[in-house]
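Below is a filled-in request sheet from our internal design queue. Each sheet records the structural input a requester submitted and the sequence that came back. We keep these sheets so that new team members can see what a complete request looks like end to end.

REQUESTER: design group, bay 2
PRIORITY: normal
MODE: inverse folding
CHAIN LENGTH: 338
BACKBONE (tokenized):
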């Protein structure tokens, strides 16, 4: 281990980067490292001869994004069930791997990245000569980015393509941005280590990914895949809620932001968003709490503190709404993610 025990990532939205590195020939230690920094239910096992196993991982966390340069030194098989809380991209820097996700098989190499949605099992055949960038983006962050950028309703989880080009177009630029960010945050003294610059870089990675991956919201896509266009009143209200989800908005305040009456705004939301404004705000807050609990240390984070931070003032009603949306109490999410 480089630098002792891995520090825990900061809360979603944190502008302070965290760098953790590990070099080991111990399979269990490597598996625990990947579970700690990426996903708890990840399964990794060497295939065949283990004598060449030499894990190398350099991982940086910056709020809602986690970027790691990972290699194993020996052939391994990885599997993981639903990611639930994140979208993920694997972009090889050397070698290639075979990826299966949601019925699609992708050969990811230096010309093509593999993309994973929050729902659907992932199965990877990872050769020993494959070294790659593993990029995790919190689900709520990417969905907020697309939702804010478009004037139409999006389906969640996002209907992303299974891969994208790394040689030409936006994918080349995005991959270069991620490589530079990772390199800067793994060293010391650079501009990327400054919180204000790190925050801007973080936002560029998220917005760049939203513009790079294939999704059914572009003008070139069949009209049947596009959501209904949203009026400006709805768009203004959504922008305000996404900017300050913790703010104690009332129906009247939201209507004032939209410039219409309460009933008019409620009807517009039912038609173009599928629920009333305050119901959407509650879901936005619940998703934010879920994302933060899913990546937090249960010894350092208190459920009630997180709930208050996201605008919930009545913990009993919050717990009931959380269980209804995610099927488990918030305390269980906090326990199980580690």
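RETURNED SEQUENCE:
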């Amino acid at each position: 281990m480089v630098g002792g025990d891995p520090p825990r990532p900061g809360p979603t939205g944190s502008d302070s980067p965290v760098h953790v590195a590990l070099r080991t020939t111990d399979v269990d230690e490597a598996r625990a490292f990947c579970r700690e920094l990426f996903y708890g239910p990840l399964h990794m096992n060497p295939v065949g001869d283990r004598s060449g196993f030499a894990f190398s991982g350099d991982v940086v966390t910056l709020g809602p994004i986690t970027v790691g340069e990972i290699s194993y030194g020996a052939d391994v098989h990885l599997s993981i069930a639903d990611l639930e809380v994140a979208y993920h991209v694997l972009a090889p820097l050397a070698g290639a791997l075979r990826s299966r996700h949601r019925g699609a098989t992708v050969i990811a190499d230096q010309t093509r990245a593999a993309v994973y949605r929050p729902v659907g099992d992932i199965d990877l055949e990872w050769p020993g000569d494959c070294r790659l960038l593993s990029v995790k983006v919190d689900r709520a962050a990417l969905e907020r980015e697309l939702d804010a950028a478009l004037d139409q309703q999006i389906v969640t989880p996002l209907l992303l393509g299974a891969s994208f080009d790394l040689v030409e177009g936006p994918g080349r630029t995005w991959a270069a941005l991620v490589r530079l960010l990772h390199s800067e945050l793994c060293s010391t003294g650079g501009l990327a280590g400054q919180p204000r610059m790190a925050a801007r870089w973080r936002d560029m990675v998220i917005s760049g990914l939203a513009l790079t991956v294939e999704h059914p919201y572009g003008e070139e896509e069949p009209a049947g895949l596009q959501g209904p266009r949203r009026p400006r009143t709805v768009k203004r209200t959504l922008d305000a809620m996404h900017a300050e989800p913790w703010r104690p908005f009332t129906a009247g305040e939201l209507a004032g932001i939209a410039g219409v009456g309460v009933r008019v705004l409620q009807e517009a939301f039912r038609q173009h968003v599928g629920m009333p404004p305050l119901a959407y705000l509650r879901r936005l807050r619940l998703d934010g709490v879920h994302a933060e609990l899913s990546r937090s240390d249960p010894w350092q984070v208190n459920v009630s503190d997180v709930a208050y931070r996201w605008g919930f003032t009545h913990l009993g009603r919050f717990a009931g709404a959380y269980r209804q949306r995610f099927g488990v109490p918030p305390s269980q999410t906090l326990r199980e993610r580690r």
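SHEET NOTES:
- The domain at 232-336 is CATH 1.10.10.60 (Arc Repressor Mutant, subunit A).
- Residues 1-14, 219-227 have pLDDT under 50 and may be disordered.
FILED BY: M.R.
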